[in-house]
Amino acid sequence: MGKKGKKNKIGRHDPCFCGSGKKYKKCHGILSAQGKVLERSTKIQTTIQQKFEEQKAFEMQRQKQQGLGRPIISTDFKGNRFVAVGKTLHWSDKWKTFHDFLGDYIKICFGRKWWFKEIKKKPEERHTILKWSELVWRYTKKHVQAAGKIHTAPMTGALESYYGLAYNLYLLSHNVELQSKLIKRLKNQEQFFGAYYETFVASAFIKGGFDLVLEDETDSSTSHCEFIATYRETGCTSPGLTDTPKG
């Protein structure tokens, strides 16, 4: 005799309790198995729906912060910050955040040889980028209280200009292409602000959900726009930054 309160469990090969003469697994056992499968399927669908809603909310938040371009791919692994820019992977143990990467990205784009050549010049003769960089360095040094720690501080004009250009260059590299001709113009002090403005406009299109096709910058014989922007949702195109006629 079993213990008080213990129910007898029907085995899969036992006669079904309904008296049909069939084994339980081929009678009411089928309905029981189907019910468990349905219950398991419902739980899986609920979990999938929850994950989908979480991802949807995350993407909406990302778009509010980053716009409609390709998402930032940045992660920390074994003390190194890895950042993917298009098909190129950058990393450093000095980068604690994505903004730390941006602080070095202009140097990467312009080339360290050019950068250190500018540093050797007198402060008043240096390129505007170097002057911004100096102000950023002094401001950062003033607000960093412990090395290797993440700090926050109010935005300044120099920080916004320097990191703004770095982010514009990153957006072009990550979403379209960073042309060497553009970098050359940015290095030229006389053409710098015009080229800087172009990066600002291009990044605005990228964040707005446009796909950019850059024009041939080597052709100086005719007037042309810097790029063609196509809005993904409608397919409508818009020329960006039309050049003035040559000659």
User: Helical region count?
Assistant: 7
Terminal Cα span: 108 Å
| Topology pattern, helix = H, strand = E | HEEEHHHHHHEEE
Radius of gyration: 30 Å
Number of separate strands: 6
Helix content: 40-55%
Structural class: alpha+beta
Low-confidence stretches: 1-6
**Residue-averaged pLDDT:** 84
Largest sheet, strands/sense/barrel: 3 strands, antiparallel
3D shape = elongated
> Strand order, biggest sheet?
1-2-3
Strand content: 5-15%
Give an overview of the whole structure.
With 247 residues, the protein is an alpha+beta fold. The chain is built from 7 helices and 6 strands; from the N terminus they run H-E-E-E-H-H-H-H-H-H-E-E-E. The strands form 2 sheets. The chain has a 3-stranded antiparallel beta sheet. A hairpin with a 2-residue loop joins strand 1 and strand 2 (80-85). Helix 4 (128-143) packs across helix 5 (157-175) and helix 6 (180-187) crosses helix 7 (192-207). The protein is elongated, with a radius of gyration of 30 Å. The chain starts with 27 loop residues before the first helix and ends in a 5-residue tail after the last strand. The model is unreliable at 1-6 (pLDDT under 50).
